[in-house]
Design goal:
Blueprint (H helix, E strand, L loop, with lengths): L14 E7 L6 E5 L10 H11 L12 H18 L3 H16 L7 E8 L5 E8 L3 H11 L3 E2 L4 E2 L1 H4 L6 H9 L9 E3 L52 E2 L2 E2 H41 L29 H6 L11 H4 L5 H19 L1 H16 L11 H5 L5 H13 L4 E9 L4 E5 L2 E5 L6 H15 L9 H4 L12 E2 L17 H10 L14 H4 E2 L16 E8 L5 H29 L1 E6 L3 H6 L7 H18 L12 H11 L37 H24 L6 H33 L45 H30 L5 H21 L2 H14 L2 E2 L2 E5 L18 H14 L2 H22 L8 H4 L6 H11 L5 E7 L6 H7 L11 H9 L2 H4 L8 H8 L9 E3 L16 E3 L18 H7 L6 E3 L4 E9 L6 H22 L2 E5 L3 H4 L5 H9 L7 H17 L6 H27 L11 H35 L5 H33 L8 H12 L11 H5 L4
Parallel strand pairs: 4-7
Antiparallel strand pairs: 1-2, 3-4, 5-6, 8-9, 10-15, 10-16, 11-12, 13-15, 14-15, 17-18, 19-23, 19-24, 20-21, 22-23
Helix pairs in contact: 1-2, 2-3, 3-4, 4-6, 7-28, 10-24, 10-26, 11-22, 11-26, 20-22, 20-41, 22-23, 22-25, 22-26, 23-24, 23-25, 23-40, 23-41, 24-25, 24-26, 24-40, 25-40, 27-41, 28-39, 28-42, 38-40, 39-40, 39-42, 40-41, 40-42, 41-42
C-alpha cells in the first residue's frame, strides 16, 4: 500500500524522527510523516546539523531530528576513511543523504510505499521510493567511481557501492535493506510519477578547482597528466610488407638476387676459366712433349716433375720421390714447394715423442696419469648438488637477485602460499590449448560439496605437524599475533560455518556475497572479491557473472615467511604435513564426494624439480648404453686383416658345403684341396671376429670419457663450483660427442699405419741400392719428423715398423688436429663461464674441464692402450680374453695385397660421396641450399618464444602438473608487484610530495600518480589494480576526523595508544594542531616529528635516524603464459626506470617471479655472444650451425631459455668438432697452388677429397652415428623436458652439425681454402707406396680406368 504525500509538497516532509527498531540489534527506523518541515529543536541541534551536513542547513526548517542527525554522523564516519581523499565524492555523499534525510522539500522526491510495526509497537517506514534525476545520479556516481582504497588495492566503490559500474547499481546497493547498510528498503525508480519532482542538485565534480571538490589524480583520472605513448612489450614491429616483416622481406629479396647473381657468375666464370686453362695447357705442352709422364694418368694430384727431369729412364724410386698430393703435372718446381710451418712441425714432433713414450712405457703412463686423475677425484669430498631454483638459475650479482635480497632484508620475505583448486570430477574432459590442457568440468558449487569441503578445511586448520605446529602457528595474521589467519576460501563468506544456512538459502547468500564482498567479511576482516575464491566463472546472457556456475573453488592459505631459519623450518614442516595430507586426500576425494583437487604447497616446487625417480632415468641410461656398445663394437670395424674373409662369406660357404657331410661320394681331402670347400659341422668364423675386434679398446676409451667427467667434477667441486642436474644429464652426452671421434680418428689412422707398415704390409716392387731393410722392433727410434729436408727418398724409408713406432706416428699425424679441436672447444666452453647464470656458468666450466681432461687422457693413456691392443692383435690374442691365443696362419709373403684397407664408410665417401659433392654444379647447389637455409633460419628465429614452462621441468606424473593447468584455467588474479623507493628524503616536504598522490600539493609526476597513470594503460604496463600508497595512508591515519586514526594518551601525548586501550584515555594525535590537518599537507609532520610516527605499517624500512626504503604495492594483470610473465617483468622495469628519472628517487620493481625471469632480460644478448665465441675453426660454418639450430627451435616449439642456451653452447663444441678435423685434414693434404693458377681449383678439390676420405668416416662414426643412436633411444622418453630440450634440440644440432661440417665446409674449403701445411715424410711414403702398388686409393682426378678398378 502506498501512502500518498501531500501534493505540491514543497516545505513538506515524507518522514521524520525515529519510531523504534525492527529487531533487538536493528537500527532506528524513521516514522512516516506528511507534515511541514520543522525548525531544529535548539541551537545545539542546529550546530550539529551544520557540522554534519554543511552550511546549506544553517537556517530554515528541516525534516529530521537530532537523533537522525547523530545517526547520519555515525554512518558518515564509517565511510569517511574510504571517500575523504576525494572532496567531491565525500561532499556529494554527505549532501545526498543529508538532503534525503533533512531536506524541507523531502515530500517532492520521497514517497513512502510501505510501513511496518517496530518492536515498540510504532509504525515505521518499511520501503520508499527516492526519485533522483539522472544527471544528478550520474554526477554523484562519477565523482566516486574512481576513488581508491590503497590498503586493499581496490576502490571505495567496492565497499560503498558493491562494485557498481553505473549509478542505478550504485543506488540500488545503497538502498537495499541489509544489516550493514540501510535498515529499510530504498528504491530508486528511473521514471518518477508526474506528481513528484526528482532531486536534481548540481553534483560536485572531482575536476573542479575549488578545494571542496577537486580531487587528486589518483581518485580523479580526468585531471591526471597524460604520459607519452609506450608500446606493449610484446608488440610486434610495425614495419611489414604484406604478411612478412621488413627484415624477412629484405632477406628474401637479397637471397633471390644473390642466387641469380651466383648462377650468372658461375656460368661466366666457367666460360672464362675454360678458355684460360686451354691456353695455359697449350703453352705448357709445347715445351714438355717428351715428359716421361706425358702418357700417364691424367692426375692433378700426381707428382710434379721439374723441368730438369727429362730422362725417360728415371726409375720408380726417383719418380716416387716427387709424388705428392698437391701438385700438378704441369707445375714448375718452384710453384709447388710448400711453405714451412714451424709450429706445425713442432707439434708433430712433440706428439711423436709423447706417443712413443706412452707406447713404450704404458704401465708407467698409466701410473702417472691415473695418479694425477686420482688426486683430482679427491675433490668429490666437497661434492654438492645445487637444488635451490634461485641459486641455480639466477646469478648472485644479477639485478633481480640483489633487489630480492634487499627487499627480503628490509621488508621481510614474501608470504608462502598453499593453494588448492577444487573441481567436480564428473564429466571432466580436456581441451587442448597449445601444449597445455585446460580443464572443462561441471559446476563445482552445491550444498553437499560445500559441506564436504568445510570438513576438509576444518581438518586442515587442525592439522598438526610432527613437532606439533598447526596452521595458527605458521599462518600470516594481518591483525597481529592474536588475529585471524588469512585463508581465502568461499567458505569465509559463510563465516566458516554452515549451521545458519540450508540447502535452500546457501545459494542466495553466496550470490549476494559475490556481488558485495564487503557484506561478507571473513574473520581477517578484508573483503574477499569473487575472483580470489571462485574460478571458471562465465557471464550469463544478461552480462552478469554466473557465480553459482563456477567451475572451481580456489582456496589459498597464506603462511608467513622469515629470514630466520627456525621460523622458516617451522613453516616448511607444516607445509610438508599439509602436502602429505592433500596427497592422501586426492586419492579418495573423488569416491567420497565427486570432487577432485589440484594443489601446491610452499615446498612442492623445489621437491618436484629435484625428483629423480620419475625423470626417465632408465631411458637416459639406456641411451648411454646404446652409445657405449655402438662405439665399442664399431671401433674395430674395418681393421681386419687384409686377407681375412668376412663372416657373411664364410657363412655362405659353410651353407654350401654343409650338405656334403651327408654325401658318401665325397673325396678325401688332399694337399691340393681347398680347405674352404671341405664341409664342417660348425661354420668357420673369421679370425677378426676374435682378434680384430676392439671392443675392449672402445670400452676403455668410453671409460676415459667417464673418468674425465668424474675428474672435472672432483676438481671444480674442490674449487667450490656446485653440480647441477643439467651437468649430470648433459656433460656425458657432450664429452661423448666431442671425444669419441678422437678415438675413431686415432684408431682408423693406426689401421692405416698397420696397412703399410705392419707385419702384413707388402714389400715395395723394387728397391734401389739406397734402400734400407725393414726396421726391426728393436731398432733404435728416431723421429721421422726431426728432419728439415724438403725431400726424402720415400723408398729408403723402412717398411716394417714396430708397434710403438706406428702408434707414435699415428699420434704425430692426428695429435695436432686433436689439439686444435680441443683448444677450440675448451675456449668456447670456457667463454660460456662469462655468462652470469649459475646453471650455464657451472655447465661451461665442467664442460671445458671434461673436454680438456678427456683430450689429455686420449693422447696419453689411450695411446698406451692402443699400443698394448696392437701387440695383442699381432700376437693373435682374443679381444676381451687376451690370455687365449689363436694359432698363427701360414703367411704367403708373395701374395698380392687384397682390398684397400678402408672401411665401408670410407669407400663410400671415396667412390661416391666425395666425387659427387665436389662437382661444380653440386657445389653451387649446396651453396644455394645452405644460403636458403640460413635465410629461412633468420626468418624463423624472429618467432622464437622466450620462457620455460614449469610443467616441462616437472616429472610427467607430478601432482603439480594438474595444479599448473588449473592455475592457468581458473585463477584470475595477477601476482603482486612492489615498487621500492630509496635514496630520497621522505622526512622533507619535497620528498613527501615526490611520493604522495592524495594531497593537492603532490607532484604531478609523483610515484603514486605515475603508478596510477600506468594502471590506466594495462596493455603496456601489465598493472591492473590501484597501488597502495603508504604515505597517503600514513597522512590519512593522522586525520583526527577519522574514526580510526592515530591516538595518543591524554595523560602523556608522547605515548601512543594501543588498539585495546579505552577511548576515554586517548585522544587523536593531531587534535588541536595548528594549522589543522588538511589536504594541502600544510602542517603535516616533517623531520623529527615525521620520524616519531614513522613506524607506520610494513611498507617502511626504518633505520636509526632515517627511512631506508619504502614500497608501493599493486598487482599485475592475470599472467597466463611465459610471454605474459616476461612482458610483465619488462614493463615493470620500464616503469621503475621512468619513475627514477622523473622523481630522482631510485626505484626498482619486485615480484616473487622476477628473480626467475631476470634471465630473459639478458638471454638474447647472451645468445648473441654465443656467435662470437668460435675462432679457430672456420667461423662462418660454426655460426651457421648455431643459426640453423635456432631456426629449427621456432619451428619445433623449443623456447629460448637457460637450457636451450646451454644446448646452443654445446652446438658450438659439436660444430667445432665437425669442422676442425675436416679443416685441418684439408690443410695437411698438401701445399696449395697460387690462387690464380689455372689448376688451383682442381688441386683444392683433390685436397678436400683426401681430407674427406681420411677423417670423414671417423667424424661420421664418432659423432653423427653415435649421437643419433643415443638420440633415437631418448625419443622413447615420456618426459616433455627431455623430449623438447634434449631429444629435439640435440637431434637438430647433430644433423645440422653433420650437414654443415661434412657438406657445406668441404664445398667452402674447396672453393676458398688456403695453402696447406708442408708434406711430411710419413705422408710421402704412404702415398708413394699406395700409388706404386696400385692400391685402391687413387687420387680423385684419376682417369676413368683407374676409378673403374675400384670395383674389380
Amino acid at each position: 500500500m502506498a501512502l500518498q504525500a501531500v501534493l505540491g509538497g514543497t516545505g513538506y516532509c515524507s518522514m521524520r524522527a525515529s519510531c523504534g527498531r525492527k529487531g533487538i540489534f536493528g537500527k532506528p527506523l524513521p516514522c512516516p510523516y506528511d507534515g511541514p518541515a520543522v525548525e531544529p529543536e535548539d541551537d545545539e541541534a542546529r550546530s550539529l546539523l551544520v557540522s554534519v551536513c554543511g552550511e546549506a542547513f544553517a537556517k530554515g526548517p528541516v525534516c529530521c531530528t537530532t537523533d537522525q542527525v547523530e545517526a547520519l554522523r555515525d554512518n558518515f564516519n564509517q565511510v569517511e576513511a574510504l571517500i575523504s581523499p576525494c572532496p567531491a565524492c565525500r561532499n556529494n555523499f554527505r549532501s545526498f543523504f543529508c538532503t534525503f534525510t533533512c531536506s524541507p522539500d523531502q515530500a517532492t522526491f520521497v514517497n513512502i510505499t510501505s510501513t511496518q510495526t517496530t518492536t515498540s509497537n510504532e509504525t515505521a517506514v518499511k520501503s520508499l521510493d527516492f526519485h533522483v534525476a539522472k544527471e544528478y545520479g550520474e554526477g554523484f556516481f562519477d565523482s566516486c567511481k574512481s576513488v581508491q582504497m590503497g590498503t586493499t588495492n581496490g576502490y571505495a566503490m567496492d565497499l560503498i557501492g558493491g562494485g557498481a559500474k553505473d549509478y542505478p547499481a550504485f543506488f540500488k546497493f545503497m538502498g537495499d535493506e541489509k544489516a550493514i547498510g540501510s535498515p529499510f528498503q530504498i528504491n530508486f525508480p528511473l521514471d518518477p510519477p508526474p506528481e513528484f519532482k526528482p532531486l536534481n542538485s548540481t553534483p560536485r565534480n572531482c575536476a573542479d578547482n575549488d578545494l571542496e571538490s577537486r580531487c587528486t589524480c589518483i581518485d580523479c583520472p580526468t585531471i591526471c597528466p597524460s604520459l607519452p605513448y609506450v608500446p606493449a612489450p610484446n608488440e610486434e614491429a610495425a614495419c611489414h610488407i604484406g604478411l612478412v616483416s621488413c627484415l624477412s622481406f629484405v632477406l628474401i629479396l637479397s637471397y633471390s638476387i644473390a642466387v641469380l647473381g651466383l648462377i650468372i657468375g658461375f656460368i661466366v666464370q666457367r666460360t672464362i676459366r675454360a678458355r684460360r686453362e686451354r691456353a695455359y695447357e697449350q703453352v705448357a705442352l709445347s715445351g714438355e712433349t717428351s715428359s716421361p709422364r706425358s702418357h700417364s694418368r691424367g692426375l692433378v694430384g700426381a707428382a710434379s716433375l721439374a723441368h730438369h727431369l727429362e730422362d725417360d729412364s728415371i726409375g720408380a724410386q726417383s719418380e716416387s720421390r716427387h709424388l705428392g698430393r698437391g701438385a700438378s703435372l704441369l707445375d714448375p718446381t718452384e710453384t709447388v714447394q710448400p711453405r714451412q710451418y714451424p709450429l706445425n712441425n713442432f707439434l708433430r714432433r712433440t706428439f711423436y715423442h709423447i706417443g712413443l713414450f706412452a707406447a713404450n712405457s704404458p704401465w708407467l703412463t698409466f701410473a702417472v696419469v691415473f695418479l694425477l686423475v686420482g688426486l683430482l677425484n679427491i675433490g668429490w669430498k666437497k661434492f654438492e648438488i645445487e637444488t635451490d631454483p634461485v641459486r641455480l638459475w639466477v646469478a648472485p650479482t644479477s639485478e633481480s637477485k640483489v633487489q630480492k635480497d634487499f627487499f627480503d632484508e628490509n621488508f621481510g620475505p614474501f608470504y608462502r602460499t598453499e593453494q588448492i583448486f577444487v573441481t567436480a570430477s564428473e564429466g571432466t574432459g580436456a581441451r587442448s590449448n597449445s601444449s597445455l590442457s585446460v580443464l572443462d568440468t561441471n559446476p563445482v558449487l552445491s550444498w553437499d560439496h560445500l559441506n564436504y569441503w568445510l570438513d576438509v578445511e576444518t581438518k586442515i586448520r587442525n592439522l598438526c605437524s610432527p613437532s606439533g605446529y598447526r596452521l595458527s602457528d605458521v599462518c600470516f595474521k594481518p591483525a597481529g599475533p592474536r588475529g585471524a589467519c588469512v585463508v581465502q576460501s568461499v567458505l569465509a563468506w559463510f563465516g566458516n560455518d554452515l549451521d545458519d544456512y540450508n540447502e535452500d538459502t546457501w545459494a542466495e547468500h553466496l550470490q549476494n556475497c559475490a556481488q558485495s564482498p564487503v557484506d561478507c567479511l571473513p574473520d581477517f576482516q578484508q573483503p574477499l572479491a569473487p575472483h580470489y575464491v571462485l574460478g571458471g566463472v562465465d557471464e550469463a546472457e544478461d552480462g552478469r557473472k554466473a557465480f553459482l556456475e563456477a567451475k572451481a573453488l580456489v582456496v589459498t592459505y597464506v603462511v608467513a615467511d622469515s629470514l630466520d631459519s627456525e621460523i622458516q623450518a617451522k613453516a616448511m614442516e607444516w607445509e610438508t604435513t599439509l602436502r602429505e595430507h592433500l596427497s592422501e586426500l586426492s586419492k579418495r576425494i573423488a569416491d567420497e564426494s565427486g570432487l577432485q583437487i589440484a594443489f601446491s604447497t610452499g615446498v612442492s616446487l623445489e621437491e618436484e624439480l629435484n625428483k629423480s625417480t620419475n625423470t626417465d632415468v632408465k631411458i637416459v641410461v639406456l641411451s648411454y648404453l646404446a652409445m657405449f656398445f655402438y662405439v665399442s663394437l664399431t671401433l674395430g670395424n674395418g681393421s681386419a686383416g687384409r686377407d681375412d674373409e668376412s663372416a657373411l662369406s664364410l657363412l655362405k660357404q659353410w651353407a654350401r658345403n654343409f650338405p656334403r657331410l651327408f654325401t658318401r661320394s665325397a673325396p678325401p681331402p688332399s694337399m691340393s684341396t681347398d680347405s674352404r670347400t671341405i664341409p664342417h659341422i660348425l661354420p668357420r668364423l673369421p679370425r677378426s671376429l676374435f682378434t680384430g675386434s676392439k671392443f675392449t679398446l672402445g670400452l676403455f676409451g668410453i671409460s676415459l670419457v667417464i673418468l674425465s667427467v668424474s675428474s672435472s667434477v672432483g676438481f671444480f667441486s674442490l674449487m667450490g663450483v656446485k653440480v647441477t642436474l643439467i651437468i649430470a644429464e648433459v656433460i656425458p652426452f657432450l664429452v661423448l660427442a666431442v671425444g669419441v671421434d678422437n678415438v675413431f680418428i686415432l684408431v682408423h689412422e693406426l689401421d692405416r699405419q698397420n696397412l703399410f707398415h705392419g707385419p702384413n704390409a707388402a714389400a715395395p716392387i723394387s728397391q734401389g741400392a739406397g734402400s734400407h731393410t725393414p726396421m726391426s722392433p728393436t731398432h733404435s727410434h728416431r723421429s721421422p719428423f726431426d728432419s728439415t729436408q724438403d725431400e726424402v727418398d720415400a723408398a729408403s724409408m723402412p717398411l716394417l715398423l714396430s708397434p710403438e713406432e706406428r702408434v707414435a706416428r699415428t699420434l704425430a699425424k692426428m695429435g695436432p688436429s686433436i689439439l686444435l679441436s680441443t683448444i677450440t672447444e675448451t675456449v668456447a666452453f670456457a667463454l660460456g663461464a662469462l655468462v652470469p647464470m649459475p646453471a650455464v656458468r657451472n655447465f661451461a666450466l665442467y664442460a671445458a674441464g671434461s673436454v680438456m681432461l678427456n683430450a689429455i687422457l686420449q693422447v696419453t693413456v689411450f695411446i698406451s692402450a692402443m699400443s698394448m691392443d696392437l701387440k695383442r692383435l699381432e700376437a693373435s690374442r682374443v679381444d676381451c680374453f687376451p690370455c687365449i691365443r689363436l694359432p698363427s696362419r701360414i703367411a704367403l709373403l708373395d701374395g698380392p695385397p687384397a682390398g684397400s684397407g678402408l672401411g665401408r664408410i670410407a669407400r663410400f665417401i671415396r667412390r661416391h660421396y666425395a666425387p659427387f659433392l665436389l662437382k661444380p654444379i653440386v657445389k653451387g647447389t649446396v651453396l644455394i641450399i645452405f644460403a636458403g637455409v640460413f635465410v629461412a633460419s633468420i626468418i624463423s628465429m624472429q618467432h622464437i618464444q622466450l620462457g620455460l614452462d614449469q610443467r616441462l621441468a616437472l616429472p610427467s606424473d607430478s601432482y603439480l602438473v594438474p595444479y599448473f593447468n588449473n592455475l592457468d584455467a581458473y585463477l584470475e588474479v595477477g601476482p603482486p608487484v612492489y615498487f621500492v623507493s630509496q635514496d630520497i628524503d621522505v622526512t622533507g616536504r619535497s620528498g613527501q610530495q615526490a611520493l604522495c598522490g592524495r594531497f593537492t600539493t603532490c607532484d604531478d609526476y609523483s610515484i603514486a600518480n605515475l603508478l596510477e597513470a600506468e594502471r590506466k594503460r594495462p596493455e603496456s604496463s601489465f598493472i591492473s589494480e590501484p597501488s597502495a600508497s603508504w604515505i597517503d595512508d600514513f597522512f590519512g591515519w593522522l586525520d583526527p576526523g577519522k574514526e580510526s586514526c592515530c591516538r595518543v594518551r591524554k595523560a602523556d601525548p608522547s605515548v601512543f595508544c594501543g588498539e585495546r586501550e579505552r577511548e576515554r584515555f586517548c585522544q587523536p594525535c593531531y587534535l588541536g594542531k595548528v594549522p589543522a590537518w588538511n589536504i594541502t599537507m600544510d602542517g603535516l609532520p616533517e623531520d623529527e616529528e615525521f620520524m616519531r610516527y614513522a613506524s607506520f605499517g610494513a611498507a617502511l624500512s626504518v633505520g636509526d635516524d632515517e627511512i631506508i626504503a619504502s614500497h608501493f604495492r599493486t598487482f599485475h594483470s592475470p599472467l597466463k603464459t611465459q610471454g605474459d610473465f616476461i612482458n610483465a617483468f619488462a614493463a615493470a622495469h620500464r616503469i621503475a626506470d621512468d619513475i627514477t628519472q622523473r622523481t630522482g628517487s631510485t626505484v626498482f620493481p619486485y615480484s616473487l617471479f622476477y628473480v626467475f625471469f631476470d634471465q630473459y632480460a639478458h638471454i638474447i644478448a647472451m645468445t648473441q655472444e654465443v656467435w662470437d665465441w668460435p675462432g679457430i675453426c672456420p667461423r662462418g660454418v660454426v655460426a651457421l650451425t648455431v643459426v640453423t639450430v635456432m631456426g629449427v627451435m621456432a619451428v619445433w616449439g623449443i623456447s629460448l631459455n637457460a637450457i636451450s642456451l646451454v644446448n646452443l653452447v654445446i652446438s658450438l663444441g659439436i660444430a667445432v668438432e665437425f669442422c676442425a678435423h675436416i679443416a685441418r685434414a684439408f690443410m695437411s693434404a698438401g701445399s696449395g697452388l697460387p690462387v690464380d693458377h689455372p689448376a688451383g681449383q682442381k688441386e683444392r678439390d683433390e685436397r678436400m677429397w683426401t681430407a674427406l676420405v681420411d677423417v670423414g668416416p671417423s667424424v661420421l662414426s664418432g659423432i653423427t652415428f653415435t649421437k643419433l643412436i643415443g638420440m633415437s633411444v631418448l625419443a622413447l622418453t615420456r618426459s616433455k623436458l627431455l623430449e623438447v630440450y634434449y631429444f629435439r634440440m640435440w637431434l637438430t644440432l647433430i644433423i645440422s652439425g653433420a650437414l654443415h661440417g661434412l657438406v657445406l665446409l668441404p664445398v667452402v674449403l674447396s672453393i676458398a681454402g688456403g695453402s696447406g701445411f708442408p708434406q711430411q715424410e710419413a705422408d710421402e711414403e704412404w702415398m708413394s707406396h699406395a700409388i706404386r702398388n696400385d692400391y685402391d686409393y687413387p687420387p680423385f682426378l684419376a682417369d676413368d680406368n683407374s676409378i673403374a678398378s675400384d670395383y674389380d
